[in-house]
Amino acid sequence: MARNTQVAADHNAPLVTQILARHVATHPGYLAGGWSAAVDHEAHRTFMNWLGCAVGAAHHEAADAALAAVQMLQPAPQASVLGRKEKVDMASAALVNGITSHTFDFDDTHLKTIIHPAGPVASAVLALAEQLGASGRDVIDALVLGIDVSCRVGNAMYPEHYDRGWHITGSTGTLGAAAACARLLKLDTQKTAMALGIAASQPVGMREQFGTMTKPFHPGAAARAGLMSALLAQHGYTASPKALEAPRGMMQTVSTKNDWNEITSELGQRFEISFNSYKPFACGIVIHPSIDACAQLRAQGVTPAQVERIELKVHSLVLELTGKKEPVDGLQAKFSVYHGCAAGLTFGRAAEEEFSDEVVNRADMVALRRKVVATVDDSIDEASADVTAVLTDGRRVHVFVEHAIGSLQNPMTDAMLEAKFKGMSDAVLGASQTAALIEACWAVGGTADIRALTALARP
Predict the structure, then answer these.
(1) With the C-alpha atoms ordered 334, 339, 341, 342, is the resulting torsion angle positive or negative?
(2) Interatomic CA distance for residues 180 and 166, integer angstroms
(3) Is 268 left (phi over 0), alpha (psi -120 to 50) or beta?
(4) Which of 68, 95, 372, 385 could join 290 via S-S bond, C-beta 3.0 to 4.6 A?
(5) How far apart are CA 69 and CA 91, in angstroms?
């Protein structure tokens, strides 16, 4: 018996699958004047930041487990696992590199949607490009257009889609990865639409997994799914030509909010990669203002020994996402604003080392976390924090952070990104090879064969 269901659907949605496919397949690219030098420089910043994150986590236990699993498939060595000697098939490389690029929670962030766009897109593109021997120019062009697809779809659905529990990096990243790989394969509009359609049936990731290894699995799985979608489309595999926008297509299934104008407005003129940001702290982006504030307290001479309590006022979303008071390991601490405050005040920073299991469980860190008293004040923006250190001598030292370091209003400089890269890569590749890899990242748009760069990214 057929069910009588009520579907609140938009039956007059624009044909966004076709619109995005045409955008990806026919856009002229940078060398033909398709976007500005500033946009292209941001693409290089995005690529370098992503690569450093992937190399830095190359020997994390999550990477070991993922690599052991894909090697059971006995894959042909087509593409590099960044930061390691092993090579695997390109789909597995996309998976593993996507995992490592997000393991430290140190990757890029499109702040409007809190998508981490490079993880799925760059991981898929680089694996395919290495197998093809594609040029660095083709890689950067594909990265710009793939990120445009994932973030525009994210713009259309955020925040309702995210609030439902979807990890938006994975769910939209599959589409971005498919679009980028379709561009790299030079698929026409019809086949690019099929790649997007196949990818639309594979949204990846639930927020329940935050604080576990499965969170970084999401961008890796999205990269692999997007790559496979493009390869299937290349060989004639078909999908609905309205897979994104149809009443029972992806977007209307996973979100009741669909602002189609966010996809079509200034398409080909405004590029979402222009609004990318980079993390100075290796944790959830909503913790950054609190860490920044506590680091400023430390710079003013406040020490943990002086603190009676830390009064923290933040938007409700901060405690919803990062309210773990008693994290027991590094992965959980990345979702603890309490640990973020303790790290900022103790170390003046919060790189991956400050989220190690050892540091998280240190007695002084546990004690300082317990002195953080967090309250909700929704008059404070999600990207801000109000912090007061109440000292044992009765003094109160106050810091308000409106825009944390790393935000669009207070961005990391190129030099800061290089220093961050070195902090992750030196221990994996050595200082001299890291320096050469950074130079190669800045020059990737002019590289004839991307394999010159991937060779530098392996020990």
Answers:
(1) negative
(2) 22
(3) left
(4) 385
(5) 13
Sequence letter at residue 400: F
Mean pLDDT of residues grouped by 10 in the chain (459 residues)? 55 96 98 98 98 97 96 92 97 98 96 97 98 98 98 98 97 98 98 98 96 95 98 97 98 98 97 98 96 98 98 96 94 95 98 96 98 97 97 98 97 98 98 98 98 98
Type of residue at 220: G
Nearest CA among 143, 131, 136, 132 for reference residue 87: 131
For the full predicted model, state whether its pTM sits above 0.85: yes
How far apart are the C-alpha atoms of 203 and 331, rounded to whole Å?
A: 23
Q: Which residue has the tokens 């902090």?
A: 423
DSSP 374: E
Tokens of 94: 């996309």
Give, in degrees to the nearest 5, the angle at Cα 97 between 221 and 46.
105
Q: Is 255 left (phi over 0), alpha (psi -120 to 50) or beta?
A: beta
All domains of the chain, ordered by start, with CATH? 16-278+440-456 (1.10.4100.10), 285-401 (3.30.1330.120)
